[in-house]
Write a structure and sequence with these properties.
555 residues, alpha+beta, Beta-Lactamase, Alpha-Beta Plaits, five-stranded antiparallel beta sheet, 20 strands, 50% helix
Length: 555
């Protein structure tokens, strides 16, 4: 069964079920309501007849009572019967007087017994005299308390009257239901045809879209699989240059990447007959990088190509930033001077750009992690490479802000004795604890690294000469106070020698600062160790013992 048929037949079936169920429920409720109404009418009619009987003077006269019963019987379809409390029938609207005199006693009839007890009685049963099922309603009242005779009036009607009324109602419901179903079926047929045409048209459209989308997805998956298998930037360039001509025929394009300096882009690979753009350009020469999203040179009749493309205004161009985790790592370029760039082309570019961006970012990250790790595995301090890069940044910032940067070269005094006396485990233990003490005594913005072996380097941005000497003395004092114990055995005292140089007081390059600090360190060792020496100072600075923890100027 087709879906459009289900859309029509299922609601229609539900409607038929609900209508049928409602019919039976409503029929039962109406039957009960109709029967109750008949009972009330019979009760009212019997009460009226009983009141009329009590108004007669000769109530015991069969002729009078029977005539009264015939009178009330003629007024409606109900049968009226008068009797006394002993069950003797005095008159009946459907029987002759002679038949009344010989009728059996009604004292044991259910409706009579109930009426005598409660004043009102009802029963249903088969009548032998009327040869049919009857509904009986009896009424008893003592309208004359002083009289020794009391009477009952009973009204009855054939149950065929109730069933006949219900039959008429049933047929009425059937006719209305059939008419409703006919109208609904007709509307459903027209709706089904309309829906069928609409569904068929939409299905054809979706099939075309699915075919196009399948081709695009297949191309993207092929591209993504090959890019994920690349182990170098050169392999990524080879994959792009081989696959792109098939995806964008009669067009040329290129992929450029941002250099580490972040101030220049370089063409990684190009495809097509000829790439007219420059191989190197700055980020400010690409509208896509300046806007932060793709730039189409022929968007809404605005013809503004990027300056680095060096093309005529008639050539359509598309530049899309290559992003990886919100960082721009390059640009994807596409040019067309023959066929216009269609919506399908621009839609296909988006997933391709994501794949290329992720592939380049993963390879760059892999190369970066392979070449260096920023922390020393033993002490947890930064390594020498990280320190060098950070020092370059600090000096560059200090030049712009006209501030200072302090560099301290730190070396242990007689560190070899720890290894010779207590073993290499003790030497590592000393390095770890001294590194922890250094991190505890420096500022958040300072960088301390393990320069090599037992030698450390501390870089403090925005710190003057006097503060640098004070911090060095404070650090030496703190380390001298360490009480190092390994396996419950004291390792003895620890002391350090420190050489200090400050940018721009002593030098204005990274290499010169490190060299001067290292020379100051060796001069401190030559003068007896356990002290601080400032680079290129002729006068002696006080030894570490002369500077207490509290004497250092606050930074």
């Amino acid at each position: 069964m087709k879906i459009q048929h289900k859309i029509v037949l299922i609601p229609l079936g539900v409607m038929v079920f609900i209508t049928t169920l409602s019919f039976f429920v409503l029929e039962s409720a109406l039957e009960t309501l109709f029967e109750n109404r008949i009972r009330m009418e019979l009760k009212r009619f019997a009460s009226l007849a009983l009141e009329s009987l009590y108004e007669k003077d000769n109530k015991r006269d069969f002729h009078v009572v029977d005539d009264l019963a015939d009178h009330f019987g003629a007024l409606s379809e109900a049968r009226i019967t008068f009797m006394d409390t002993e069950g003797l029938v005095l008159g009946d609207s459907d029987l002759h007087l002679e038949e009344v005199k010989h009728i059996e006693n009604h004292a044991k009839r259910p409706e009579v017994m109930q009426a005598i007890r409660e004043g009102f009685g009802i029963s249903k049963r088969y009548s032998t005299s009327m040869k049919q099922d009857m509904l009986y309603v009896a009424v008893f009242r003592k309208l004359e308390p002083e009289s020794e005779f009391h009477y009952l009036a009973r009204a009855s009607v054939s149950l065929k009257v109730v069933s006949g009324e219900m039959m008429r109602l049933r047929w009425m419901f059937v006719v209305i239901g059939l008419m409703s179903l006919g109208v609904v079926s007709l509307l459903g047929w027209f709706s089904g045809r309309t829906i069928s045409k609409a569904v068929q048209g939409e299905q054809d459209h979706l099939e075309r879209r699915v075919q196009n989308r399948t081709r695009e997805i297949s191309s993207i998956q092929t591209m993504g699989g090959m890019l994920n298998a690349c182990a170098s930037i050169d392999e990524v360039a080879a994959v792009i240059s081989n696959i792109m001509p098939g995806l964008f025929p009669h067009m040329c394009g290129a992929t450029s990447v941002i250099k580490a300096s972040r101030n220049r882009l370089e063409i990684l690979t190009a495809w097509g007959e000829h790439w007219p753009g420059r191989k190197h350009f700055s980020p400010n020469e690409c509208w896509a990088l300046k806007k932060g999203h793709q730039h189409f040179s022929h968007s809404e009749s605005i013809q503004i190509p990027c300056p680095h493309l060096q093309v005529d205004l008639s050539v359509q161009s598309l530049c899309v930033p290559l992003l990886a985790q919100t960082e721009t790592i390059g640009v994807f370029h596409l040019l067309s001077d023959e066929a216009p760039l269609s919506e399908e082309n621009t839609r296909l570019v988006t997933p391709l750009v994501k794949q290329i961006g992720l592939a380049l970012a993963n390879i760059q990250l892999r190369d970066h992690l392979r070449e260096q790790a920023i922390r020393d595995p033993l002490t947890g301090l930064y390594n020498r490479r990280y320190m060098m890069e950070s020092l370059e940044q600090f000096i560059s910032r200090a030049k712009r802000k006209q501030s200072s940067v302090a560099v301290m070269m730190i070396d242990f005094d007689h560190f070899k004795r720890f290894n010779d006396t207590f073993g290499h485990e003790a030497g590592d233990f000393v390095l770890i604890n001294v590194a922890r003490e250094m991190k505890r005594n420096i500022r958040t913005e300072d960088i301390v690294c393990r320069y090599g072996g037992e030698e450390f380097c501390l870089v403090c941005p925005e710190m003057r000469v006097d503060n640098a000497v004070a911090i060095a003395n404070k650090l030496g004092e703190s380390i001298r106070r360490l009480d190092l114990r390994l396996n419950k055995k004291s390792l003895g005292g620890v002391s350090i020698s420190i050489g200090v140089s400050v940018f721009p007081t002593h030098a204005d390059t990274v290499e010169a600062l490190l060299k001067l600090a290292d020379e100051a360190l060796y001069r401190a060792k030559a003068e007896g160790r356990d002290r601080t020496r400032l680079a290129d100072l002729e006068i002696e600075t006080p030894v570490l013992q002369a500077h207490s923890f509290t004497d250092a100027p606050e930074v």
